[in-house]
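Continuing the series of single-chain predictions for the mutant panel. This is the parent chain; the variants come on the following pages.
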Amino acid sequence: MLDGAVEEREKGTPQGGVISPLLSGLYMHYAFDRWITREFPMCKWERYADHGIIHCVSRKQAEYVLDMLKKRMQMCGLEIHPEKSKIVYCQRNNEKIDGEITSFTFLGYSFRPRLTKNRNGQYFMGFTPAVSAESATAFREEIRVEIQNSNTTDIVAVSKRLNPIIRGWYNYFGRYCPSEAFRKGINYVNLKLVRWLEETRKSVRRSLTKAQHLLHRIAMSNPEMFYHWKVGYMPVK
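Parent structure:
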């Protein structure tokens, strides 16, 4: 316990334990995966750890499946989170139903109606994923802290600290709607680098415009220094 006391565990597995994810995955495989496949073969579904999505064709079906899922979880000694579990109307083509929830977040992605372009260049309203506001906020904070704690005036050293973070984040969230990943995250990296140059270079101190020009010149001379430059998100002049 937090105070150092030791108590015998009667149920569950310790959070952070090496074996906990494996045991959880095995339990959920029989408690949920095999059950939903057997009882509702017409419903597609996805699950990651204890987060999941079940696709239904109508609200009536969704309400029935949710009710049966609650009973199944109770039978297995589990319960559905009352606030996080909800029925979402996947609105498309501007179809609206008053009072319906039309968005949800899953594995860091926000799913909601968005204007989308098809292969023929035509725009339509689809229900698509993009990086969530919470994930973008966490990324920006991590970048801010890393730059603040870098304690160096060497931009190469800064790139070595940031590149693993940028690479992992963009490879995950740049998969769908990369423009949102750029607007909410990658663009912030360039902005923080400009501010960092203002603080560490006497020649551009207290001049945002000069710092922007300097970062642009650095990027043009070494476009592979930062991962996002390498994939095409160069800083503007």
